[in-house]
Amino acid sequence: MLIAILSGFIFAVLPVFTGPLLKGKLSVLSALLPVGLFAYFCSFIPDIAAGGTVYESFAWVPSMGVDLNFHLDGLALIFALMISGIGSLVFIYTSNYLKGDPYIDRFYAYLSMFMAAMLGLVLSDNLVAIFVFWELTSITSYFLIGYKNEDRESRRAAMIALAVTGIGGMFLFAGVLLMGAVAETYSFQEILSSGVVFQEHALYPIILFFVFGGAFTKSAQFPFHFWLPGAMRAPTPVSTYLHSATMVKAGIYILLRFTPALGNHAYWSDTLLLVGGITMVYTAYQALFRTDLKSVLAYSTIAALGILTFLIGLGTEAAILAALVFILVHALYKATLFLVAGIIDHQTGTRDITKLRGLGKLMIPVAVASALAALSNSGIPPTFGFIGKELIYESTMEMDSLSILLTVAAIVTNVFLIYAGFVAGIRPFLGKLPPALGKVQMPSPLLWVPALILGMGCLFFGLFPGFIESTLAQPALASLGFGSFNFHLKLWHGFNTVFILSLVTMGVGLLLYFSLKPSHKLEALIARLEPISPKSLSTLGGKGFRKFSLSWTRLFQSGFLRYYVIIIMGFLVVVTGYNTLTETKLVIPDNAFDDITIYEVITLVIMVVSIGFAVFSSSRLAAVAALGVLGYAICLVFVFYSAPDLAMTQFSIDTLTVILFVLVLYRLPKYLKLSDMRSRIRDIILALIFGALITTLALEVLSEPKYRETSEYYAENAYMLAKGKNVVNVILVDFRGIDTMVEITVLVIAAIGVFGLLKLRLKKSEVN
Amino acid sequence: MKSYILQTATNYLLPLLLLFSVFILLRGHYLPGGGFVGGLIAATAFVLHMFAHGVNETRKLLRIHPGFLMPTGLSLAILSGLAPKIISGLPFLTGIWFSEPIPVLGLIGSALFFDMGVYLVVVGVSLTILFTISEGG
To answer: Which residues, 6+ apart, have CB-to-CB distance to A5 below 8 Å?
Structure first.
């Protein structure tokens, strides 16, 4: 199974080697990968249907409890089949949709990486691995949404999507870490079997907060829904794949997956009901005002995701069953509608639904696929959507409290969705063909066949729901802990309340469709509310944060060396100053001056004189030379106290530093009075304080009882373990080898920086 | 400003200093010295040459851009760290040694190669910075 999941990543590298082979007519062959995966996952159906699960384990970072454990159960199977199945059709569709695109190989690489990440997400059992794959879907979707990277808006949409889902990913990470900490394992199966009761733990609300933060951003729940309509900038195959069938369902998947562990608590269900309810009604209502084909679909998708969240919030067996069935229903019809929208866009060059009419005569198969999907979307029998909607109503009706309110919310949403489905799926094909569209061609079979397959699926599963019942729905319910639940998916439930509600929904929905024509006026109306929409507010927040971080950075990164030195010294004084002053005793050891030699006194005098000279000299060169003298004097001190290694290094460093200074000074103007009296006084004060601090620290080190453990360890083991007699060197190259490695890397970075700064020749246009 | 005395002296000093820097590098494991100091000494030798003959002459003498020494040194250091992992499956940067001492050099281990990497990086970094600055960008 590991290979199946990673195959997408491996495939993504392929274009590097195959070059243009995959760009031309052969690009359709890329679809072999998802088709193969689909067949592979289909082969598990009998096992899973019989109640089994598949568990495979690969150690990854065992020391931290992070493993690549894959667990294929009913729920994972539904998602895996959706990802690989719809993926196959999208791959085929893309080969024609992006025909001749110079970067189609790159597109396939992104798409297959996304598919692999998505499969990893739904199959992983380890919470940390789930997070890793979750982030991979965010990152790959960034590349897919921003695929048309010459388009500014496209880049912006990709950035917003990445920002929202990326922040969400961090939330999820915090959530799973907390869950892992509470349960003391990251394996979800172990968490379930260990019997940890999260609901009674003090951290439960916090865990919920973080997990919801992740799921709501990914699944575009209100108020984070705005990234999804923006992401419609992506090529249509991406919208089909990511934003109808897979990625946005990742949040739903997480909620479903965590239901057995975190669900069944008032916090859980109330939050989900509220957020899901607001999302579905609000965004379904928003769909009424859109004139862009993909926009209508985007808002109805968010509404569908709202319904799913809402159903998970209900949390009863009926509701979870409804959610599972609705996931499939929605994936089938929404993918079809998106594919159709892409075909229309591809053939006519417009997605404006006020202009699109009468296309049915020109492309019959597309019209059929679209109509089936629209019917399923509207929940009209005998399509699969009807079954889904009946289940939703059943689950809202059976609630003890608020059942009327919940049912009304579901009905209102469905009414709006019927309108959206008809406008997007049926309206463009009816009516009189406008003359502007007279020359529209029949699309290639590579485009319409995938759409038709999905469209037929909407009808097929409606007529024969038995195919889903025992193979997918029952095992998935069982994997969520609802094993005993007995149900039958049927088209005809008899003439009962639910059926009447369905009829009412259809009636009102159709009425709405016939009375309300999509127009730009309506769209302009809703655009007035844009300034207070969550999107504008968060963009504003983002800008504010940018400004803040810019000024914060400017405060510390002034670009002037002197201020950096001031900040570093000041920081050290503030951090350690108080403690040093209050805690240290400032004792000068009694025998400190006993054995002072004449050499030491001379060296000290040289040092003091050179410091004074450096400070008061009016020539830069002389000041630098004086600093050099100071450096050599320090070398002498090292020699006196038998630290030859330090002395040698200090000596060479000082030589090179003086040379460096001279080289730099050579290019500076002769002499300038750089600082005024005030800043000089400030510098003097800071220098004195800093000097006093270092002196105190040095004295403190002397008066403290000596901890010799570390140095003794090195001294003893330098020869034993590292076969070296020079302890300093052994520490550098062996005991602390990684430190040295990082240090030389930093050196290299610094050198590259100097080189870059000095050699950089900005073109005039690039200056500011 | 040309100084013939300095130029002539440098011609003899440069090889001597380089030899000395290698000597310092090699003896580092047992006596004061090591890759860092050795590298600095080698860099100083070239800087001396630069002062006497000018940057262009030193560049010609070096043949390669000193910048190339940086990745070379880093790779050498990393390889010396990876060697124990590859050869005997020990953790990254574990010291391993040849079983027999080599004449003149003594016992050689991965630490020496690591130190040689440090040496090359230090030479590369110092010379890159100094050359760049003396050319004035």
So the answer is: A70, A116, A119, A120, A123
pLDDT above 90: residue A722: no
Contacts of B91 in chain A (CB under 8 A): none
Answer whether A541 touches B (CB < 8 Å): no
Burial of residue A605 (number of CB atoms within 10 Å: 0-12, 13-18, 19+) = exposed
Q: Distance (Å, rounded) from C-alpha A376 to C-alpha A383?
A: 5
pLDDT at residue A651 greater than cutoff 70: yes
Beta bridge partner(s), residue B38 = none
Cβ contact A137:A250 at 8 Å: yes
Q: Looking at the complex, does the CB of residue A688 fall below 8 Å from at least one CB of chain B?
A: no
Q: Which two tokens stand for residue A433?
A: 């063909």
Q: Cα separation of A28 and A507, whole Å? A: 43
Q: How many CB pairs under 8 A join A and B?
A: 138
Confidence of residue A170 (pLDDT cuts 50, 70, 90): very high
Nearest Cα neighbor of A252 from A341, A313, A203, A193 is: A313
Structure tokens at A281: 């009604």
A345-354, A612-621, B72-81, B85-94: range with highest mean pLDDT:
B72-81
Q: ipTM of this predicted complex?
A: 0.89
Residue spans of the domains in chain A: they are: 266-518, 592-669, 723-768
Say how far residue A618 (Cα) sits from the centre of its chain: 57
Query: Could B32 and A644 be called an inter-chain contact, meaning their C-beta atoms sit closer than 8 Å?
Result: yes
Domain locations in chain B? Answer: 4-135
- The CA distance from A201 to A184, in Å, is 13
- Collapsing DSSP states into helix, strand and coil, what is residue A61? strand
Residue of B nearest to A660 (CA): B130
Q: Which of A683, A744, A206 is nearest to B72 (CA)?
A: A744
Q: What is the pLDDT of residue B20?
A: 92
B84: its two tokens: 């124990």
Q: How far, in Å, CA of A142 to CA of A660, rounded?
A: 46
Amino acid letter, residue A7: S
pLDDT at B104: 67
Q: Nearest to residue B52, comparing CAs of B12, B91, B1?
A: B1
pLDDT mean over A526-548: 75
**pLDDT band for position B1 (cuts 50, 70, 90):** low
pTM, two decimal places: 0.72
Question: CA–CA distance from B133 to each of A33, A603, A658, B6 (Å)?
Answer: 55, 33, 13, 22
Query: How far apart are the C-alpha atoms of A165 and A117, rounded to whole Å?
Result: 15
- Using a pLDDT cut of 90, give the percent of chain A over it: 7
Distance (Å, rounded) from C-alpha A596 to C-alpha A603?
Answer: 12
pLDDT tens per residue across span A235-290: 888 888 887 778 888 889 999 888 888 888 888 888 888 898 888 888 888 888 88
Q: Please say whether the beta carbons of A169 and A214 come within 8 A.
A: yes
| Cβ-defined contacts of A751-756 (< 8 Å, 24+) | A751/B67, A751/B70, A751/B124, A751/B125, A751/B128, A751/B129, A752/B67, A752/B70, A752/B128, A754/B128, A754/B129, A754/B132, A754/B133, A755/B67, A755/B128, A755/B129, A755/B132
Please choose, from the candidates A142, A135, A137, the residue with its C-alpha nearest in 3D space to the C-alpha of residue A158: A142
Q: Is the peptide bond before A62 cis (omega within 30 degrees of 0)?
A: no
Our CA-based measurement puts residue B94 at a distance from the nearest CA of chain A, in whole angstroms, of 7
How close is the nearest chain A Cα to the Cα of B102, in Å?
A: 14
- The identity of residue B56, as a single letter, is N
Helices (H), A98-151: 104-123, 127-145
More confident residue, B36 or B106: B36
Residue A669 pLDDT greater than 80, yes or no: no
Stated as kind and residue range, the H or E segment containing B33 is none
User: How far is B5 from chain A, CA to nearest CA, in Å?
Assistant: 20
- On the question of pLDDT at B137 being above 60, the answer is no
Please give the torsion angle defined by the CA atoms of residues A262, A265, A269 and A271, in that order, rounded to the nearest 10 degrees: -90
